[in-house]
Amino acid sequence: MDSRLHRHLADGTTALYLxxxxxxxxxxxTGLGPGDLGYATEVALDPSHGVNLAALHSACADEIxxxxxxxxxxxxxRCETVYSIQYRSVAEVGGLGGG
Length: 99
What we know:
The protein has four helices and three strands. It has helices spanning 4-11, 14-20, 39-42, 63-73; strands at 25-29, 51-60, 79-87. The longest helix is centred in the last third of the chain and has 11 residues, at 63-73.
């Protein structure tokens, strides 16, 4: 991970960081249910930050395998989703436009 991303995560400007680098897709842990943006909101990749995410594909690891992975890393999640990022206006990306 690029060390500059940490500042953007803390500042809530992740969308701006990704937009400036031409990022079109992101993989995030899957939310709790339909319409739940889950981690997207946590990392400021949601409509209030000028971004819409479209789910493309979700996959889940076997439950036992995911428990072992989480126990050893404390970060592994069972299910993840690939999203395409749809940026709104440049002014809104990163919440700059008060979207």
